[in-house]
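Take a minute with the sequence and fold tokens given here and flag any structure token that looks odd. Thanks in advance.
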Amino acid sequence: MKSISISEIQKLIPEGNILNGELITNISFTGVSSLSTSKNTDISFVASKAFVNDAKASASSLLIVTAEVAESIPGKALIVVPKVEISFAKIVKQFFPDRIPTGFRSPHAVVDATAKIGEGTDIGHFVTIGKNTNIGNNCIIEDGVKIGDNVQIGDNSHIGPNCVFFSDISIGKRFRVYANSTFGGDGFGFVFADGKHNKIPQVGRVIIGDDVEFGANCTIDRGALIDTVVGNGCKFDNMVHIAHNCQLGENVVIAGQSGLAGSVTLGNNVLIGGACAISDHLTLVDGTIIAGGSSLRTSPKTKDVYIGWDLGLTFPEFQKYRVNIKNIVNLNKWLKRIEGLEKKVGIESKEN
């Protein structure tokens, strides 16, 4: 069982300030845990003051906290840091390190003679790699991955099982995708004529920047004529769909079961919650936030938090809308009361 001492932890997170360290000088930490399931040799974190009572009751001997939270937890060994989750992640990786590629090449893989595979890259069982494809150094290509012709994948990328990369795709460094996602399939382009739907060729590419991550079962379509582009640092949950010709800026985040229709443009640092639907040819400016379960049919005019179903309302406007919906539900009751009052004062209604 792996263990680390408090001195090793200090080296991992030099930004931390230890409080009540005398309580843990003889403890070797053997794991990380949530506050409610921890044991004496575990390390936990406290994200906000909402979890202070849980922290006080926790068996964890060491808690990672912010300065704001620290003053509320006396009598516990603490490491005070600026950003709890970032510091905690460094410790988690000590107990659950990332897989390191070893240069393994499965005898069951089929790699075209013109393809170039970088140093230290793992190629799993039943992988196929097409003509003139270039895979960078220290990558991990897991079992069952299918990579077409003229694909570029940057260094230190990790491709999960059974992913598919159609031809003519370019992907940057440190790319990460989980199982069963598809990149570069045809965009959904048809024209109805002569009594049938006629397919429009999709000849653009998919271009993905550095430090991008996709979850499982995502689909990213190639462009029709222009490329579908995903900028640096974007992160996508499971089951996200990006249609043809979409242009995504940097550090975009999209939660699960959300989809972008064709030719959507997202600025930098756009956040889209789960189960959202963004209609075609819309533009979201830098920093726009779309709350989960929303749909958009018009482009928001300014950076804000938007919520609702085809309403284009900011969050405060949506709250007013919800109140008014309740009022509409009671409208018939109010009408009857008004009619009763009118009769009492002798006003005759003109309505039939």
